[in-house]
Amino acid sequence: MTNTALEIEQKLSEYESALPDDKFSQLEKVSIWFLFALVSIVSFGLIFANDIFWGDGLKPIVWDPIVKDAGAAGDAGYSPQNTAIYAFTILLAVIVLQGIFRKMGLPADDKMMIALIMWVLLAPVLRVLEDSDFFSSKIDWLMISPIIHFHLALWLVGIAFISHNFCSKWDGMGDDKTVEKSRTILFISLGMALFLHWALLYRPAYFEHQDVGLFWVLIGLAFSYLLLFMVLVWTWKWPSITRGLTAFGSSATLLGFFHWLQFLDTPWPQESGRVVESQPIWPLLVVLGIPAVVCWFMYKYGIEDARHINLTGYQAGVLPDGVTVKTWEDAEKIVSKHPIEQLSKKALLANPMVLAMVYGQLCDGIATMVGIDFFGYGEKHPVSNAVIQFGGEINNSIGISWGEGAWLFALVKTILVAVIVWLFIEMRVEKRQVHMRMLIVLAVLIVGLAPGLRDIGRLTLDV
Questions:
Q1: What DSSP state is assigned to residue 54?
Q2: Are 245 and 442 in contact (CB under 8 A)?
Q3: Which of 51, 65, 193, 382 has the fewest beta carbons closer than 10 A?
Q4: C-alpha distance from residue 461 to each of 70, 73, 200, 299 (Å)
Q5: By the 8 A CB rule, do 87 and 447 touch?
Q6: Are 316 and 348 in contact (CB under 8 A)?
Q7: Contact call for residues 99 and 228 (beta carbons, < 8 A)
Q8: Facing residues of 429 across strands?
Q9: pLDDT band (50, 70, 90) for residue 2
Q10: d(CA 301, CA 417)
Q11: With 0-12 CB in 10 A as exposed, 13-18 as middle and 19+ as buried, what is 36?
């Protein structure tokens, strides 16, 4: 198969080659300059026309909902205006960042995807704690979307910088002395960062909730450092930047989760005066269990081809170096026997990024349905709310009095994720586009997995 692949690639070399990784495409150049112009205009506007840009613009559209969400009223809804702003920002960020990451030579493989998933999990863990009114009133706005994602992005960049600059010189070295040295330096530096994370975000809250117990908090701190060390042990062959991001992201998530347990054990007062009640366990099992079963079957179906394509040295769905998508499509008959074409479709079903997208979207859909139709929660996103209201109209038209119509949202999410999976297994990307693919998945996780886990967290903690 390898010889056949090499022969195919030799034939493809006669076609026009893709741009080198160190060159920006025209779209990337336009996006970067547009971002620069946009930031400049907004900055000058905030300075010289503050009433227009801030008082009548960003403040009522973006900032006021964040402040309201962080306050006693809580859970401010999104508007069509700020939804459009956030969507455009994500799209622009994907285009700009993927070009920058590619030029920097940052990894964009399955290991990095796993690392980023850890950070996506961290966001809803912190967000649910904010829903429970845990954090100090001085910093609780940092836990509100979309600020929380920018906030965590700063932590992510800092951890990536520390990990890469301290230990990247030993990447690829497998002798025991080097492995131990790299692990020790990462554990000490990331351990200090984890302590800073705890001291800045969690410690001030203990003084505001003086009656809160510390049993689960202390256990959480101990287990977080244990997990930090163990992840560094398990990932000793990984690049240092990926190791650091995975280790810190997972340990910080575990630390936050133990604060959930502390709330369940000794709940602190709610700003709204609401009395916390115990909730049944079945929503947790349903919301997390059904997507897990679906992903397990996908994984089992695709894992053999995933292993085979890894043995050939190729990435599922990623074209050989220098080959463009147009070349690949034009040479359809030639490439039909290439490992990428023969193995990618099934292999991608077992890929972490596809599994994470499926899990996240299903989790969001089911959690929303359970929360609204069974427990009386509301939907804050205008588009999602419109779908739910339409589902309610269908209920009324056929005489169903149960629920608000969130079943339709879950159905739409299921169809959406099926379409996304189909697109991903059919799509081929150039080697220089792997960062864009990874960032697109990250964006989907931010708007799917994170809200879904927040929903089930709120249901579990009754906040």
A1: I
A2: no
A3: 51
A4: 18, 18, 23, 31
A5: no
A6: yes
A7: no
A8: 318
A9: very low
A10: 17
A11: exposed
Q: Is 318 helix (H, G, I), strand (E, B) or coil?
A: strand
Q: Are 373 and 352 within 8 A, CB to CB?
A: no
CA–CA separation, 455 and 368 (whole Å): 7
Give the bridge partners for 17, in sequence order.
323
Query: Each residue of 344-370: pLDDT tens digit?
Result: 999 999 999 999 999 999 999 999 999
b (16+ CB within 10 A) / e for 53-67: bbeebbeeebeebbe
447 vs 3, residue with greater confidence: 447
- pLDDT digits over 15-32, tens only? 778 888 889 999 999 999
**Other CB atoms within 10 A of residue 301 CB:** 12
**From CA 448, how far away is CA 120, in angstroms rounded?**
10
pLDDT at 449 over 70: yes
User: Which amino acid does the sequence have at 288?
Assistant: L
Tally of residues, the chain: 463
User: In the structure, how many helices (H) and strands (E) does the chain have?
Assistant: 20, 0
Asked if 205 contacts 135 with a C-beta cutoff of 8 angstroms, the reply is yes
Separation of alpha carbons 54 and 48, rounded Å: 11
| DSSP one-letter code for 17 | B
CA distance 451 to 455: 6
**What mean pLDDT comes out for the span 225-245?**
96
- As a 3-state breakdown, the chain gives helix, strand, coil percent values, each rounded to 5, of 75, 0, 25
User: Angle at Cα 117 formed by Cα 116 and Cα 118, nearest 5°?
Assistant: 90
Q: Give the pair of three-digit tokens for residue 145.
A: 């979307």
Q: One-letter amino acid identity for 12?
A: L
* Phi, psi angle pair for 106, to nearest 5°: -70, 145
Q: Identify which of 156, 29, 17, 113 has the alpha carbon closest to the alpha carbon of residue 435.
A: 113
Torsion angle (degrees, nearest 10) of CA 72, 74, 80, 84: 100
**Closest to 374 (Cα-Cα) out of 279, 270, 275:** 279
- Each domain of the chain, given as residue ranges in start order, spans 1-6+277-463, 109-275
Instruction: Take residue 306 and report the two structure tokens written for it.
Output: 């995933």
Peptide bond before 146: cis, by omega within 30 degrees of 0?
yes
Give the residue carrying structure tokens 């969001």.
364
